[in-house]
Amino acid sequence: MAIVKINPIQIAGRWQSGISLDLHTTSSTPVGYNEYGHMQFDTVRPEIAELLYRLKNRGDRDAAGPIIETAANFLAPYRDRFDSIVPVPPSHQRALQPVIVLAEGIGAQLGVPVLSCITTTRPTTQLKNVTDPEERKKQVDGLYQVDATQTRGRSILLFDDLFRSGTTMNAITDQLLGPGQAAVVRALTITKTRSNH
C-alpha cells in the first residue's frame, strides 16, 4: 500500500477540532460544451482527491486502499483522542458507499469501532445542489437522529468524504453532543471544496 502526499487543512464547525486531508480540486478550467450542452472542465485534483473521485464516481474499489492507509497514518498519532468513528450517512444510494467503505477501513486499521448510530428521519436530497445557506439549513433540520445507547460518553471522530459548507456535519455534531450525549466530537474529511457553496 502507498501513503499519498496530503496537505491537511483545518475545518471549522461545532466539533472540537476538524481536519480535511486535502482540497477536493486544485483547479477547474472550462474546456467547452459536450454534445449534450453541458460545460466540460479540465479538473486538476490532489492525489488523494483523484483517488476519492475514482472510488466515488467510477466505483473503483482499488482506490480505497491508499485513501484508508493515508488517513489511518495521519490519525495514528491522535488515536488516544477518539474511541469510535461515526460515518455521515450517505445522501443517496450507491452500490458502493465510499464513506462507509473508508470509515470501516480506517476503523479496522486503527482498531477503532465504527458506529452506524446516525439515521435519517426522511429521504435526503443531495445538499451539493442547494447553494442557499438558509435552504441548506432547512434541508437538514430534524433530518438526523442518533442512537444514544451507542454514543453516550464516547469521544467520537465524525467522518465524511467531502467537506463543503459543514451544514450536514454540524447538524450531526449537534445530535451527537445533544441527544447522543457524546463526550466530545472531532471531525475528519478526506477532501474539502475550495469554496463553501
From TrEMBL:
- N-terminal signal peptide: none
Which InterPro entries does this chain map to?
ComF/GntX_DNA_util-trans, PRTase-like, PRTase_dom
Task: Kindly give the CDD domains that the UniProt entry links to this protein.
Answer: PRTases_typeI (cd06223)
- Report the domain of life of the source organism: Bacteria
SUPFAM superfamilies from the entry?
A: PRTase-like (SSF53271)
User: Which PANTHER family does the UniProt record give?
Assistant: DNA UTILIZATION PROTEIN YHGH
Question: Which protein family is named in the record?
Answer: Belongs to the ComF/GntX family.
Q: Under which name does UniProt file this protein?
A: ComF family protein
Organism encoding this protein: Aliidongia dinghuensis
Q: What is the lineage of its organism?
A: Bacteria, Pseudomonadati, Pseudomonadota, Alphaproteobacteria, Rhodospirillales
